[in-house]
User: What shape does this take?
Amino acid sequence: MNRKRLIVPTIALLSFFGIASATDYKAVDFGAKPDGKTLNTATIQAAIDFASANGGGRVILTPGNFVCGSIYLKDGVTLHLEAGATLLGSLNPWDYVKDPYINWTAFIFAVKQHDIALTGEGTVDCRGFEVATRGVDYAQRGLIDDKLVLQRLQESNRPQNIHFRECTNVTVKDVTLKNPACWNQQYELCDSLLIEGITVDAKAYWNNDGLDVVDCRNVVVRNCYIDSSDDAYCFKSHHRDGLSENILVENCTGRSSANGIKFGTMTAGTFKHFRFKNMTIFDTYRSAITIACVDGGIVEDVEVDGLRSIHTGNPIFIRAGLRRSHSLVPTLKDLTIKNFYAEVPATKADAGYNYEGPIEDLPRNCCPSGIQGIPDLRIQNVLLENIEIVYPGNANPRYAFRGCTDADLDAIPELEKSYPEYSNWKELPSWGFYVRHTDGLQMKNVKVKVLGKDYRPAIVLDDVTGLRMEGVEVEDFGAEPSKVEIIRKDVRE
Assistant: This one.
């Protein structure tokens, strides 16, 4: 396989990020009161505006609880939260702005700004559950115009902790971000972004993504801990001409009641040159890694090197589709996953967490890792190297059966326009890997292990070209020898 090995040259430039503060301004000197009662929106905004107008600097929140509504960071300003300081969200939904330019609601905004930062050992706590439930009450009474789908305000009407758009030279470092009412932090169309050492506790409400990076370039995310009810580390493209490029995520941990690492679901533009290193995913409902391209975009040159996934519902899901592609033909190619270890539980991986993933009406047999293109959109050039995955086994053919005859495999639906989740097919014909409509697959030193008897074979390959397998090992406890074979249909090496 001819694979491009591209280095991310601009990542090194991010090492100097952090705003040099010429002047410090304490918010209390502008009249802010950290008493947990006074609404400080105007006074904190006045401090930010003053600092920006006078050449930049740090606006400091000293220890205490600063109740606040929506504020905007401005050029050259660092909002610094000292240890013991909390920027505490107002419980009144009317204190949050829905920005008319970006059409989202947030606690901390920045729009078209440069050299901005959010730092310190303090906390940003939107109190999203209370804000969202009060918003639902207001919508039911006709005070807020909202469709209330599933008895929730629309996502754009619930405040995120952070929404930065079209900003350059951005640093978010060391802070704790808690309890958003929607996504926790969204960075859209930004360039030169460093997110380092932050802690995220985003389990307060629905759609609490941990981190959303949307059409951004030159991004470093490192040494972060994210616990979220929706996708933990999520990379999206909302714009047809959007470009997500030169992204490094390293030494990070995530837990999610959705996916650990996810591309999409919205994938309208281009993603390229992504590197994930030294990651840990645990207690996650869906996939440790989901790389999906279903909206007409391009995903290429993605490498995951060193990931440990413990107690996660599915290890790897790579999916190409035509959900919203219109006349565009998406591309999904040049993917590497190596030095990866995963353990899949027999039971629900996120049971007991707030806003856990949906409970199935009936138990289903555990799904394999999947690399699933469609006939009109084949996945190209995938390398799996130094992989070990442990599955629970004990699948029940009397509950559901999917065989491996040509007719059985042909009967598996393509679901090319479906929302991309590994569980869409309910039952697949293998317990370890299922690969379909893929060109250029390398499996080197790949081991799949099952702890209990499973009636299905370990690996099913269907319509795969350019196959190279080296050191592929199946360890099967209690199953008949015929069940550990690798099933191949329309495979061309």
Q: What stands out?
A: The chain has two domains: 1-230, 281-356+365-493. The longest helix spans residues 41-53. Residues 465 and 492 are 5 Å apart (CA to CA).
